[in-house]
Amino acid sequence: MSVFHFMFFLFFSYELKSSELKYNAEMPSRITALSGSCVQIPCRFNVSELSLKNTESFFGFWMKKNHDFKISHFVFNGKTNKSSGFNNIEILGNLSQRGCTTVFYDVMNDHSDKYYFRVETMPSDWKYTYSENPIEISVSDKPQLLILKPTDLKVVMENTTVNLSCSAEAPCPKQPPTISWSNIPESAHITTQLQEKPDKTQSVFSHMTFKASYVDHRRNISCTATYPRKTFNDSTVETTVMLRVLFPPKETHITIDSSTSVSVGTNVTLTCKSKARPSKNMNYTWYKRGQENQLGLGEQLTFIVNRKSGGWYFCTAKNEHGNEKSEEIQLIVAESLSLIIGCIVGVSAFLLIFLLITLFLRAKAIRETDISDQGQEKQVQISSIFANGAFVSGEELEMPKDENDIVHYGEIDFSTPQTKSTTVKSSGQETIYAEVRGPEKEMNQD
Fold first, then answer.
1. pLDDT of 51
2. Is 259 helix (H, G, I), strand (E, B) or coil?
3. What pLDDT is recorded for position 359?
4. What is the DSSP letter of 351?
5. Helix or strand or coil: residue 107?
6. Taking Cα atoms as reference points, which of 146, 320, 160 lies closest to residue 243?
7. Which residues partner with 283 through β-bridges?
8. Is the pTM above the cut of 0.85?
9. For the sheet containing 102-104, what is the strand order?
């Protein structure tokens, strides 16, 4: 073999090996996007080490349908930074560090297809299409179903800590869905965050923890995800799980088929009610306050009322997880009730009579006091008339009823016939005062 042929063989072998070298891009093989939203494609790639020696710039491209760039349709050109068929495509990754994560905005149903990533460098002019690693984008009008764990919540014991998780796919992390819980227990604590999955896609993960209570038994807990979209309405998806709780008897109480007041000879049924899980094979026991022995077993207690049936009754309910005593209920026998009412009426009548007698005596005493005061007042008036010899005070006499009546007041000395009179007019009335005196000598002698 000549030297020329040998050199040609070596060069051809090198070109063949170089062409057989494979480079790959790490990205999911398939991703589901929601129409009216965006989709983010996680992506990393590798390149030839020889091409990096003189490389100053990297350019990324996305092609649709075919990996042959000569016949394929470019939906994104990294050199011109222009999109075709989409409103916008943005490469978020740093190409110089092998990052090619890309966001396709405002995806629609006709965007469902296979897409290939291509890299070109300058000035080394290295070019490669990752034909072995395409990604298939599937566009749907409905969000993907939520994942609620555990999917089938097993029966839990009361006061046991329960953990529930709900995750929603987030094909567009720039516009992630919002997760909300409904009909949650009062003790629930919830945390929500955006998480990365093993294939580098993301989801919104919400975790709830609480302590199971008997009031939570058969509670339907729902998780709802709401996706923002450029449509008339946001899209929601929901999933529900039922909580089942084991617990001892709760809210144990007694009901009676008639009023709590019954007459002798009446047939009475008391019923013991309680909440428990499991509720089958419950044990009920009946008691009466003041009696050590139990009255009976079973959910109901039936008996014919006699005079000794009155009193306070209670029951206990028991299952495999515990027991509880009910509140007491009083049963009143009608005869006893009549006696009590009679006593109350009798005491009330006695008090009423006592009150009437007291009021009567007090009124009589007040009347007698008024009469006594009037007698004393008349005696005082009479005494005042004769207190100054025979002088009478006009104020103590009754005034004339008629304006034309004339009242005369006088002081009379019968020892002499001398008289002196004075006339006074007031308010249409004429009053004459007369004074009769004896001889002055006799007055002086006194």
1. 65
2. coil
3. 84
4. H
5. coil
6. 160
7. 318
8. no
9. 39-41, 102-104, 89-91
